[in-house]
Amino acid sequence: MENLLNSESMEELEELEIDEIHEDDPDLDLSEFTPSVCNQKGKAGGKAGVLSVVNSNNGMRVVLSKELMEHLNYPKTVQVGLADHRIAISEYLGDDYTSYPMSKSGTKSIIYRSELVKQMTERYQLDFRDRTSITFSEVTYKELHGEPIALIKVKEK
Q1: 36 domain residue, yes or no
Q2: Is the pTM of this model over 0.85?
Q3: Whole-number pLDDT of residue 46
């Protein structure tokens, strides 16, 4: 990026005392500014999300949290089972299940499969009209045949 200060400006800036920088300017007039006002509430503190279903113009994907992947021992692939009010995720759920390869993005693991997103959207009647992702936070970790399994609660509408 181009340096916007020439050497003369830099010298002047270096000569300023710190208290001159923070000094009140009697000529400063805020009447031309419009106040920013927001009544929107921040997200309530609570459990962090463990699974997000993303349906946007930038792609469809299922995002799994670091916490979830830790409990599953960071498998290279996972299988997903859909029940009425729960999603099961494990490295192996059975021969009839598809094994989805995992991609990494920072601390999260991602399944890039639009068909899976469509199945989840339809099964759980997920509404993406006003948003691009829906996140689920309630999870229970169990074992199935000695292997870890995550059971994620899907809230009813």
Answers
A1: no
A2: no
A3: 54
